[in-house]
Amino acid sequence: MKLYNSLSHKVEEFVPNEAGKVAMYTCGPTVYHFAHIGNLRSYIMEDVLEKYLRFVGYDVKRVMNITDVGHLTSDGDTGDDKMLKGAKREHKTVMEIAEFYTKAFFDDCAKLNIKTPDAVEPATHCIDEFIRVISSLIEKGYAYEAGGNIYFDTSRLDKYYVFGDFNEDDLEVGVRDGVEEDGNKRNKADFVLWFTKSKFDDQELKWESPWGLGYPGWHIECSCISMKHLGEHLDIHCGGIDNQFPHHTNEIAQSEAFLGHKWCNYWFHVHHLNTTGGKMSKSKGEFLTVSLLEEKGYDPIVYRFFCLQSHYRKSLVFDWENLDNAKQAFDKLVTRTAALIAEKDAAGVDKEAFDRIKTGFTAAMDDDINTSNAVTALYDVFKADTNAATKLALIDDYDKVLSLGITEKAEAYIRSQEDAQSDIPEEVLELVEQRKAARKDKNFALADELRDRISELGYVIRETRQGTEISRK
Ligand code: AMP
Ligand code: ZN
What we know:
It contains 16 helices and 16 strands. The chain has helices at about 35-55, 80-90, 95-110, 125-140, 170-175, 220-230, 245-260, 290-295, 300-310, 320-345, 350-365, 370-385, 390-400, 405-420, 425-440, 445-455, and strands spanning about 1-5, 10-15, 20-25, 60-65, 120, 145, 150, 190-195, 215, 235-240, 265-270, 275, 280, 315-320, 460-465, 465-470. The structure holds adenosine monophosphate and zinc ion. Adenosine monophosphate binds near residues 38, 41 and 73.
């Protein structure tokens, strides 16, 4: 299996540290507001990666943090503490806000068939870990105290800009929270590990530490939570592309300084979902959520399908027309699957055909999780030269990774059709049968006349791949 590695800028063969096992870490959400569908694009694509690793037989352990300490996040906000801002907006404590939005996040994930990671750890549960690692960094000479805060000394590293794409000018981005733009730092790139002094004087959550009452920086969270659950060697670290710098750059700096060896081998970055108006951001106040999709009548899975149609390393533009196109394509997928269910006879799965056709899907996924081609491979199943049972088995198999719930939706569709039929008067059903016979005999004049009589009784009929659909006018 090949994966693009942001560290090497190359597509590489994936080889885990320990044969058969994968230690995987994902930067979790900042829980001061609902996740927007851009955030969820990242989580959907990471979910697909995790499920594909399991699909090919790896024993995966995946860990995610929850950023519930008040501080900046990745989406370009400048200004105040976001958690605190959320709490003020809603007249709640920071902890109440965090709890509420953590639950909301996992509810959204469930609606998108995103599996909950094996371990989920809120940053506020790990303060002792942070203090232990920061103390060690100070002892090793990688961190220093200045003006009350503890900073990581980036000049101690052989290489700080490990992803390569950044330079000092990009630090304008790195200092976007304002607090790190202070005169106490030894080097422009240094970042805070522990705050005791910040412009957030009313920061609600503070903890005792050897350096005084304060709170941890954002980057230290992920290093510590990852090491706590996954040990000293990480196979894959995931996140949105905006996390590459400064967040992941700083995670690598402090983790490798602490460990004294390489920490994570593969970095998987999902590119952004944008709107036609530009970048989607929580802090802009207005953003698209799963609830909004539902309010507008979309099944959230249609959004998952929309994401899968594109490769994770391409930015994706969201607009309602694109989503409508995805909805139409997805509905068709479901009704075509319903037709296969109806067509299925006593013939069982043809193992040889199954294995042969499946290679189309695995080839796509092995090629740097090319979900766009994997969706094409899914369409190819309908055209394949094999029986319905084999096709259905293939759809179910691919869906272990794609998680679109195709068969369940097709079964629900069949049930809804049956329910709709059960309310139809005998007289109408009789005419429909007569019309079917007329069509079979190619007596189209009679078929049209019968359609009119059905219409006079208040019903319309439509020919679909599944047969004749009858509904009230
Ligand atoms: P946050 O809650 O802001 O820390 O972001 C959660 C995740 O969403 C991170 O992995 C971000 O990199 C990612 N992310 C933020 N904005 C977008 C976007 N527009 N498209 C895709 N991923 C995003
Ligand atoms: Zn992180």
